[in-house]
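[audit] Reproducing an earlier prediction to check determinism. Same input, same settings, fresh worker. If the tokens differ from the archived copy the diff job will pick it up downstream; this log only records the rerun itself.
[audit] input (192 residues):
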Amino acid sequence: MAFQIAPGALDPVVGRSGGDHYYWRPIVDQLVDADPSLNPRPETLLATSWGVSDPKKVMLNLCKGVQFHDGTPFNAEAVKFNIERLLDPATKATPRAAFTAIDKVDVVDGHIVRFDLTRPWGSVLSTLADRGGAMNSPTAVKARGLTTSSSPSPPAHSRSPNTSPAAMSATCATTSTGVATLPATRCRIWTK
């Protein structure tokens, strides 16, 4: 595959090229992702479910057993680090303006994170499905600097080799509260 546009960065948070997504989408998973019909895309989601307890609080339940390529665990602390990095003016993050509704990121437990908002944020899920919801290893980012532009360290997922994305999508369920839930065995295959 070839593209006519070079990426400005492989790190989705700092990339500024209109063609960056052609490069980082196959490499980095987002907290939330959906297909063109807006159905959850389980093979690339890092949040297994989400909910809004009031208009100023958004809670995400995260995949368990996922780690970044460098071995750093993917958990609520990693999400907090990534979102706070994005909000830090020193990072000069491309999607920062879309995230200004976030006042604080709270780690509820190891795999639950809550965004406390300054105002209701209707586009939260679609925004988390783009650059701002793309996760990089906190360890790798700290080693390379907050404004790194290359060598992302995305989550290294694993799944049963017999589990196709279609089969995983078929197992997606909706709870009585309307929150989408996905099996922990979903995810893209990554190799080190």
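[audit] rerun output stored. Observation attached for the diff report: The first helix runs from residue 20 to 24.
[audit] end
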